[in-house]
Design a protein that fits this description.
Number of domains: 2
Order of helices and strands: EHEHEHEHEHEHEHEHHHHHHHH
CATH topology of the largest domain: Rossmann fold
Structural class: alpha/beta
Radius of gyration: 20 Å
CATH superfamily of the largest domain: NAD(P)-binding Rossmann-like Domain
Bound molecules: NADPH dihydro-nicotinamide-adenine-dinucleotide phosphate, 1,3-dihydroxyacetonephosphate
Distance between the termini: 46 Å
Helix content: 40-55%
Strand content: 5-15%
Shape: globular
Number of helices: 15
Number of strands: 8
Amino acid sequence: MTTRHTVAVLGGGSFGTVIGNIIANNGHSVRLWLRNDGLAATINSSRENSVYLPGYHLSDRLYATTSLRESVADADIVFVAVPGKSFREVVQQLPRMISGDSQVISLTKGIEPGGFRLMSQILREELPDNPLGVLSGPNLASEIALGHVSASVIASESPSVTRCIHDLLHCEAFLIYASDDMYGVELGGALKNVYAILAGVGAALGFGENTQGMLLTRALAEMSRFAVCLGANPLTFLGLSGVGDLFVTCSSPLSRNYQVGLALGKGRPLEDILATMDQVAEGINTLGLLKREADSRGVPMPLVDGLHAILYEHREVEDVLTSIMHREQAQDVEFVIR
Ligand SMILES: NC(=O)C1=CN([C@@H]2O[C@H](COP(=O)(O)OP(=O)(O)OC[C@H]3O[C@@H](n4cnc5c(N)ncnc54)[C@H](OP(=O)(O)O)[C@@H]3O)[C@@H](O)[C@H]2O)C=CC1
Ligand SMILES: O=C(CO)COP(=O)(O)O
């Protein structure tokens, strides 16, 4: 017999809503936690998240609440889908509300400001006894909502977590794959946001497909170089959460990070773009943290340096992009298995 779970999803933005709804459609009871009373009431009455995913019908098994305590009460699985900068303040409240057996899974593709902490590290620090995991992959929320077949990776050190989350989420239009490399999977999801901004800039400037292909491939090389330095397995980047997500986010106008890049490439100032965005583009925050971390570890990341120069040193986009590609390492593939 299939186990019926009680699931909490913390964060009622586009991704939290779509993941909660997949789980509810799979027959489980879901409570979506959000901050906005009016939106919670609308979701419960009209079965639609009119702010973040208008037109997407929500299951009767999904119930929205603004009470964190109510959302996690009796939940045996808790997903966290708030931006990286708010992640700790939310999970810090959980130890006094959930049991040590509840699984806690990050959906967030960001880095904590003020250092270089991944979401799984924050979970480990705040919830040392709970089974943990991260879910990441090429998962544009609005495409999932439209029913396009998508796939994601559940990564955990615990095989029972990967099995359970697979069974919870897997369905005809949302396929779940497993990994035991939590760091590699979440680094792929967080780092690709930076390169999606760069790809958007390139698209605005009319870069050819050859140039875009070069940028994407060199981005993968750069990400792998950095991840190896942090102890992740570079081969993880060949999977859905690495090359899969890098490809989709660097080529889709639906990506918020790509949209930031497009606007920058058209000459809009960053402050102006961010002031008019009502959804999170994690790559902006990640860029500064990544540059500082790479510099302090001595990892060459010319694309990161270039984007940083465009955003914060007010350098001309075309000059920067040309000069960074010429100072790239000559080696094509750096990590080979012999
Ligand atoms: N959208 C996508 O396609 C995907 C997103 N992700 C990742 O999921 C994470 C969430 O993204 P997404 O759902 O798109 O974001 P959205 O911008 O759509 O929504 C963000 C949500 O987080 C809430 N929130 C923000 N700050 C806080 C806080 N301090 N406390 C509680 N809630 C807060 C917002 O609430 P409020 O409305 O009250 O501001 C809102 O519900 C990001 O890390 C993103 O990279 C991952 C895969 C796909
Ligand atoms: O992570 C995503 C797709 O996998 C969503 O990307 P954006 O946050 O850029 O919209």
